[in-house]
Fold this sequence. Notes:
- This protein is mainly β.
- The chain contains no helices and four strands.
- A four-stranded antiparallel β-sheet has the order 1-4-3-2, with no helix packed on it.
Amino acid sequence: xxxxxxxxxxxxxxxxxxxxxxxxxxxxxxxxxxxxxxxxxxxxxxxxxxxxxxxxxxxxxxxxxxxxxxx
Length: 71
């Protein structure tokens, strides 16, 4: 899902930010865990003018929810 609000003008600089809206672990039909998430990506100019927003659905297969976190 993408919403375009404005176009970047010549010479302007764009900034991007991403926010995680949801995340959950689900077991697939054939076994194995999947991490399913939704993120909201926002693109603006450095002066704050909104350019675009996109909602992204992410699926990571063979995700091991029991694996320890590594630094």
